[in-house]
Amino acid sequence: LVMQYANGGTLRQHLQRNYHQLTWYDKTRFIKEIAAGLQCIHNEKIAHRNLHPNNVLVHDGRMMIADLGFSDTWHDSTKPYHDEMIPFLEPLFLQNNSYRRDQRSDIYSLGVIMCEVSSGRPPFESTASNFHLLLRIIMNGERETTIIPGAPLQYVQLYRHCWDGDPISRPVIQEVIHRL
């Protein structure tokens, strides 16, 4: 496997270095580019299942989805996860590891990424070092509540829709792109 070099590092690193210079136009563009990449993956009947800001690379200011190592067809969706993924995993999977993750799981992860892009901070940053507390918080359906001043209401509504606890209620990627 050969990958293009990403001169901007990961999305998380990019946010840490540049957050205060980013406009809402920039933030929305980042999410549009991630959503377009996710649409390509979903069109091939593949679910990423490991989508988080350290798996989004930045090259010349453009977003690229990386690390399809957990990706597979939607028929094999119960592979394990790493601790850094926890905030980006839907509660149903954390409650039941045999839960079959699919494209709706990626939409949940995208919603959490949208929140991080909005705030410039990793989700549940204050509890990230306490694995069991973090699991309990997410499995109880709690989400980040901080809304950044100036955040467009439509953007906030969209990421909340994406991380809906009911997978059936989440938008499909085409709707996400349309609403952006």
UniProtKB/TrEMBL annotation:
InterPro entries on file: Kinase-like_dom_sf, Prot_kinase_dom, Ser-Thr/Tyr_kinase_cat_dom, Ser/Thr_Kinases-Pseudokinases
Pfam families: PK_Tyr_Ser-Thr (PF07714)
Domain Protein kinase, chain residue ranges per copy: 1-180
Record has Ligase as a keyword: no
Presence of the UniProt keyword Repeat in the record: no
GO molecular function: ATP binding; protein serine/threonine kinase activity
Keywords assigned by UniProt, alphabetized: Kinase, Transferase
Name this polypeptide is given: Kinase-like domain-containing protein
Source organism of this protein record: Glomus cerebriforme
